[in-house]
């Protein structure tokens, strides 16, 4: 170890010591600074806490103040309410007092009124007031009864008068319609005098006369005149034709069977007159102007029924064709529901009416329903082209609308009519009913099998009404579009079609025979000679109304056929030649 320590060493040593001290001091400063910072932090925390405490205290003070205010306000509101309740209580007490006084007044007044009524009643009872009232009541009842009776009599009188009117016009009426010249007429007629239009030989001369020019080349002029109940010319519309047919529908609802048939050669306008143009011909589907008698009559029937009490009448429709003297049900369906024409038989029932067992009858409620069924049936109808017409119907089409009336009024009316007839028959020897009724009555007595109607009450005029009983009254409207009446040569058919044509001709001559027998009042009317007349017997005999619509072509080419049709119509009209007696002259409706 050195003995001498120099100064520098001492200084270095002191410096070292000082440095050491400095370092420790600096560390200490650092510690103190850290401590200071911590203390600052704690101070800040304490300050924050102190501030929050102060805020909480301020809030509590404010809340306390608010509560005090609310309490003050509530107290004052309660005080106000209390005073209002007290005022209301006072009002209630006043109203109650008023009510009590009013009730007392009312009681007093009603007591006084009762006393007055009692004293008046006593006066009335003592006098003849009640008796007067009773008298007045019975007088009123009597006059009501009289009015009802008068109303009923008026209704009966209306029906009797309507029927008389129809009978005066004829139970068998023949109308004639001369159709216009149509394009197919030109193909049949060679041009005359250089003119391409065919010669017109059949004309509607007046409202009831048809003039036929029968002049043969080289012979003097020969004109023939035919008279009918009504003649329509080429310009007459479907509506005009139907207007003349319309009254028959009133007769139908009055309890008479009605038949409207179109007769004429092929192409003369039978189907056009009965059914009308097909809808596709018309641009406007709602245009009814081209409808024929069948749709128009059906529509009118439903119109008339709609004026009657609800559900008093029901209507059923059946459609049949007579083809080759066989009856085919055109509404029948096979097992798969497809429409097929099914053969049926026509029979005469024990009551003398004609009936077709198993015939399909469809219940209908509108004209549209009927027309739908007819259009379906028409698709099955036998058609074939002939020389005259490329769509010639080879069968007779019969649409039957059966109207059943459940109306008590109708029954009473039928009873009344029957009584009137019986009274007249008993009281007077005069035959007041029409010649046809006499004829039918005589034919019934001598030939019950051919008589169309039963005679349950020995009514002078056989009626389709089965009897005056509680059974519904059933009347038939038969609408017939006959097959063409031309002779075989004219239609130019051969082979199987010849048989077809000869069947048509035979059934039409059977129809002519029936009308002839009725005209001559023969005891036997040969209804059963053909299916057609057998089926129609209820609507062409007795007091039924028959309208034959003769359809004729105007041109020379069809002259022979037109003359044949006009002759048929004239023969049918002879039934009415004898002037009908005014059957109501002897009737006294009470
Ligand atoms: P039918 O049934 O007698 O064989 P249609 O009724 O079929 O004859 O008539 C033959 C054609 O003549 C049809 O095209 C029909 O539209 C037309 N026709 C018939 N009558 C008239 C008429 N009065 N007015 C206009 N066209 C008619
Ligand atoms: Mg036809």
UniProtKB/TrEMBL annotation:
Q: Gene3D superfamilies of this UniProt entry? A: Kinesin motor domain
Q: Which residues form a coiled coil?
A: 15-42, 71-98, 130-157
Q: Which domain of life is it from?
A: Eukaryota
- Which keywords does this Swiss-Prot/TrEMBL entry list? ATP-binding, Coiled coil, Cytoplasm, Cytoskeleton, Motor protein, Nucleotide-binding
> Binding of ATP: at which residues?
264-271
Query: Where is there biased composition of kind Pro residues?
Result: 451-465
Q: Which GO terms describe its molecular function?
A: ATP binding; microtubule binding; microtubule motor activity
Question: What are the record's GO terms for cellular component?
Answer: microtubule cytoskeleton
Domain Kinesin motor per the UniProt entry, residue ranges: 171-575
Q: Which InterPro entries match?
A: Kinesin-like_fam (IPR027640), Kinesin_motor_dom (IPR001752), Kinesin_motor_dom_sf (IPR036961), P-loop_NTPase (IPR027417)
Q: Which GO terms describe its biological process?
A: microtubule-based movement; system development
Q: Which SMART domains match?
A: KISc
Cellular localisation: Cytoplasm, Cytoskeleton
Pfam families given in the database record: Kinesin
Annotated stretches, region: Disordered: 441-470, 571-590
The record's comment on protein family reads: Belongs to the TRAFAC class myosin-kinesin ATPase superfamily. Kinesin family.
Output the PANTHER family linked to this UniProt entry: KINESIN FAMILY MEMBER 25 (PTHR47972:SF63), KINESIN-LIKE PROTEIN KLP-3 (PTHR47972)
Q: Would you tell me the protein name for this molecule?
A: Kinesin family member 25
Native organism taxonomy: Eukaryota, Metazoa, Chordata, Craniata, Vertebrata
């Amino acid at each position: 170890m050195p003995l001498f320590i120099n100064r520098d060493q001492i200084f270095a040593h002191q410096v070292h010591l000082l440095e050491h001290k400095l370092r420790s001091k600096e560390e200490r400063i650092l510690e103190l600074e850290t401590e200071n910072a911590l203390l600052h932090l704690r101070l800040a925390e304490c300050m924050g806490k102190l501030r929050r405490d102060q805020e909480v205290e301020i809030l509590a003070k404010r809340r306390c103040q608010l509560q005090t205010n609310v309490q003050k306000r509530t107290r004052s509101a309660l005080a106000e309410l209390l005073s209002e309740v007290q005022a209301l209580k006072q009002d209630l007490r006043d109203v109650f007092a008023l009510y009590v006084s009013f009730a007392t007044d009312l009681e007093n007044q009603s007591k006084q009124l009762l006393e007055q009524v009692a004293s008046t009643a006593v006066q009335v009872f003592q006098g003849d007031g009640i008796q007067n009232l009773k008298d007045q009541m019975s007088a009123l009842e009597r006059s009501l009864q009289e009015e009802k009776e008068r109303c009923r009599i008026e209704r009966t009188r209306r029906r009797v008068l309507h029927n008389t009117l129809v009978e005066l016009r004829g139970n068998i009426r023949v109308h004639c319609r001369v159709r216009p010249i149509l394009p197919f007429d030109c193909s049949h007629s060679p041009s005359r005098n250089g003119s391409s239009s065919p010669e017109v030989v059949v004309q509607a001369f007046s409202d009831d006369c048809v003039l036929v020019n029968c002049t043969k080349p080289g012979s003097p002029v020969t004109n023939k005149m035919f008279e009918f109940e009504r003649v329509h010319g080429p310009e007459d519309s479907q509506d005009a034709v139907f207007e003349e047919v319309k009254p028959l529908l009133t007769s139908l609802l009055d309890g008479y069977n009605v038949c409207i048939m179109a007769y004429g050669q092929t192409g003369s306008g039978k189907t056009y007159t009965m059914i009308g143009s097909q809808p596709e011909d018309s641009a406007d589907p709602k245009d009814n102007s081209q409808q024929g008698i069948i749709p128009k009559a059906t529509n009118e029937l439903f119109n008339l029924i709609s004026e009657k009490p609800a559900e008093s009448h029901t209507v059923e429709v059946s459609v049949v064709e007579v083809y080759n003297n066989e009856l085919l049900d055109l509404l029948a369906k096979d097992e798969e529901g497809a429409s097929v024409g099914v053969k049926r038989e026509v029979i005469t029932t024990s009551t003398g009416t004609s009936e077709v067992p198993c015939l399909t009858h469809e219940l209908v409620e509108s004209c549209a329903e009927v027309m739908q069924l007819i259009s379906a049936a028409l698709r099955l109808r036998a058609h074939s082209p002939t020389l005259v017409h490329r769509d010639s119907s080879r069968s007779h089409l019969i649409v039957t609308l059966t109207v059943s009336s459940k109306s008590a009024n109708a029954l009473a009316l039928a009873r009344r009519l029957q009584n009137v007839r019986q009274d007249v028959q008993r009281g007077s020897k005069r035959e007041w009913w029409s010649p046809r009724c006499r004829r039918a009555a005589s034919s019934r007595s001598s030939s019950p099998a051919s008589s169309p109607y039963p005679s349950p009450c020995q009514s002078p005029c056989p009626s389709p009404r089965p009897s005056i009983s509680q059974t519904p009254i059933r009347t038939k409207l038969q609408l017939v579009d006959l097959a063409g009446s031309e002779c075989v040569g004219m239609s130019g058919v051969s082979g199987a079609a010849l048989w077809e044509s000869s069947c048509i001709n035979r059934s039409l001559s059977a129809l002519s025979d029936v009308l002839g027998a009725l005209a001559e009042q023969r005891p036997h009317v040969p209804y059963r000679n053909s299916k057609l007349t057998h089926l129609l017997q209820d609507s062409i005999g007795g007091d039924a109304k028959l309208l034959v619509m003769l359809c004729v072509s105007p041109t020379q080419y069809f002259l022979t056929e037109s003359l044949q049709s006009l002759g048929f119509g004239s023969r049918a009209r002879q039934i009415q030649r004898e002037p009908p007696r005014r059957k109501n002259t002897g009737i006294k409706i009470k």
